[in-house]
Amino acid sequence: MQHLKQDSASDISELPVLNVTAQMVLLCAWRTVKEVSLFLGELSEQAPISSAEDSDECHGKSLLTEEQVLTIGSHLAMLLVETKHRGAFEQAYVGFCKLCGRLWRHPSARLHNLPRLWMKELMDIITWGKGTKLCATRRSAGLPFMVQAFLTTELQVGGNTSCFRQSMAALLELADVTDNRAGARRSINAISGTATEDSVGNSTASDPSNIAENFKILYVSTESSDCVDTVEARIHALNILRSLFRHSVLGESVTPYIAQGVIVAIQGFKGKTWAERNSATLLFSALVTRIFGVHRSREELSIRNRMTGRIFFLRYPSLYEFLLEELKEAIASMEECYSSLQPGLFPVLLLLSRLYPSSLEGTDSNLQLSVYAPFVHRCSLSSVLKTRVLAAKALVPLVPPNQHPLLLQELVTISAQKYTTENHRHGLLLQIFHLLEESLSALSVSKEVAERVEQWIVDLKWLLPSETGFQICFVTSEVFLRILHIVSRRLFMSVSHSIWQEICNVLSVDLLRSQEEVPSRMIGRGIYLRHAVQLLLELSLVLHPTHTPTPSFLKDMEQLLVHLLFHARYEVVKIALSFLEALLDTGDYILEDEEDSTLPVDKSFYRHVKEWNRSHEGVLADSLRSSPAIGEILVRQMVPKEQSTFAECCWKTFCVLSHCPKALLRMETAAEGVLRGLLQRCQKECEGIDWAVLRCAGALVKIMQQENVPLTAEVTSEVCCTLVEFSSTDKSSTCRLTVANILLDNTSWLQGTMTFLSALDVCTLWTVVMTLLDDECSHVRELISSLAMHFGCTKFPVMPQRAKDLLVEYFVHVMINLDALMCVVCLVAWCLMSPGNDCDSGLLEDRVFDKGEMNEFAETVTVTEVACGQLKNLLCREDRTQLLETHLPGKVKDWLLHMCRTDMSTMSDCGESHTLAEFIKEADRRAVFSTGDSHFLCVNPRTEILTVFKTKKLMEAVHGSLGSK
């Protein structure tokens, strides 16, 4: 519907109504389905229902009959089964829940048993039906919602929960990997057993089979029982189970079925079709969340998302043998053929990685986690990298801490053997890394580990590239570099200085060798280089013996960085730029989400470099900041090239240049030309880089003022326009934070003391301040509010709303001495100013899906009241006639019209002889409510109401000042 041609809607109607577009039709259709579903649900929940056995008097007092209830149920069921639009069937689910809840509570046996009969009918269709419109894709669409409605309402009513128990049994049997439809049929037949018993004793009831036939809601024949694909039925069952296990209302009720659900999900990983494996994955994810809770961190597994093996297996004892058998089967197959895939191994390892041993393990049960350790260790043989990674993480909690040194020694011995396969060696090194990480993260490092770690490094040192060639696997070497990394940070003194120096030399030779010597296709070379550069830079810092860096050390570091910045691989350049940024960053800029990279840098790397620089008094940072060689390379990388440049390196380069802007002054091009080029780059660069270019431009402006480099009015006007553009809500929060930082770095521009700034430019910058005070990002509002303290308006931090009052008052104080007319013009503009998202309201009213989010902090009415108050006081003090009757220059008039977002065509034709009084009079004439009959497609009157209110406030301020005089 969204992609229908909209040619018929291209002609703008003469009437003030919205165009009927394809989007509008889709919206109205969805809302119709929503309202009808909710109305039918409310009607079935509240209205009296008469049954066949009721008396005539009851029939007269009832609003709905059994047939009408059945019709409502059929309509809602059809929406749930056949509709694929999630918004539509979610609302149908709400109505269907109300209907089922009413039926479960109804005293009539016939109506009370309807949900049970409908559930049986639905399960029959899933298992045996043919020719249905059930959607096997889109997670079975509304089918899980329908089953959820039956079962949740039964539990909410209370009493007998046989339907829930029998339905869960049927779904679990149906989801089994074996074709167990016969067992599922027995469970399905048991669902309606209670309904049949209740109906037999009723004298007015018909035969039970007729009851089920008369109260069908889907009207689908289930005669041909062997025609439905078992895979499709299993997919539906898995999707329904996922929905039930996720539902909060069923939290305690589904607990007895979790173990069987886990078994079914793990077996589903072995399915022959992608759809089956996908549904099993989703079910397993829901079960993990149900067992361990919602994942609290993306990076590390929280202790709250883990469980002791003792508690886990006491709750789900059947999983102990099942998980063990799955591991044994996978290991046996893996040892027979290394390249064989074991899909069921991954979920088993994922479960085990969330378990850890209890201090009471083995005291009250024989189900011990240590039994799994040998099998998880053997998973290092897997040919699947993700399996080896997960096995290494799962092994750590299975091994007691006192056994870590012995196991580490065994793993190192096997890894050092030449005949060990690369996959196996990679898996073993991963286990070494995670075991060492666990051991070294403890409060006290094991003495045995500290004594042996040097020998372990010597035994594995051959995994680094040699000077003669590349007889290694870089995927394996990368893990060894990670091992060296954590050892260098925690046990640096346990390894001799000569070994660290030798490692530095090897890495340096490898990184600085000519690219012609490196084969073009080497798997894992990129990620290896990333860790190699990090380790080399960190070791180069910590190997320096003295507290104060020597000149030779500073020169060596400069040469090393020059070589790294000239490297052909972007991974190396990116880490070198990150190292420079960590050294040079003084923390002046506050950015919300700066790290947006496909090649993330370890946060501990930043922290380690910053701590070293702080402890060495920033000598290295000062040296690199003033280095001509580093500055020249950064300027070269800033210049656009014909060949493609990686975005990560591009924005990092601009970030580093913003910390050493003097390098831009040393360019052959004049500083003003460089600034103009940066402003043009802001417009061209993609989102994610534009803010870094703007930040660099802001730093250049600041250093130009400090070095007394002249600025022309033309360039400063471009800077002001760029700041206005990047302060709009269309830009990212990082862009708006950058604008706020630039204003804080150049507060003299706001004080009107810069001769190269016109009064109009100063008003433009203050308008940016007003916009940012209403920004939806709290960091932006807090940052720009600090201007009030900087200008001496207050001694303490204030809320943005209070800062707005203080800053408007300070603005009037500044502008009254600079240009009183522009001060009044700006206050009038703020009185009538519309928020940025309303600027094209006339063009976007019929675009119902892409209007953007509403800014809840855009208090335009508050700005109007503050500006009107200051305007009234100003007109009372100054010559009112001179300010209002003076002709406005063309630029000022255009800026005023743009700020008010007004299409005053009659005013724009009057040339430059326009006055502020005429503008206010014309605004008052246009600010009237439109008359005529209301229509649901009429333009939203919100903008109209705001315009009338603001104009009224403006007129009160103008006339109030006249009365005061």
TrEMBL record:
Q: What Pfam families does this protein map onto?
A: DUF2428 (PF10350), TPR_Trm732_C (PF25151)
Tell me the protein's name: tRNA (32-2'-O)-methyltransferase regulator THADA
Limits of the DUF2428 domain:
13-275
Keywords in UniProt for this one? tRNA processing
In the UniProt record, does the keyword tRNA processing occur? Answer: yes
Q: Which family does it belong to?
A: Belongs to the THADA family.
Superkingdom of origin organism:
Eukaryota
Q: Which GO terms describe its biological process?
A: tRNA methylation
Q: Which residues form the tRNA (32-2'-O)-methyltransferase regulator THADA-like C-terminal TPR repeats region domain?
A: 277-435
Q: Which SUPFAM superfamilies match?
A: ARM repeat
Which Gene Ontology cellular component terms are annotated? cytosol
User: What organism, scientifically named, is this protein from?
Assistant: Cryptotermes secundus
Keyword tRNA processing carried by entry: yes
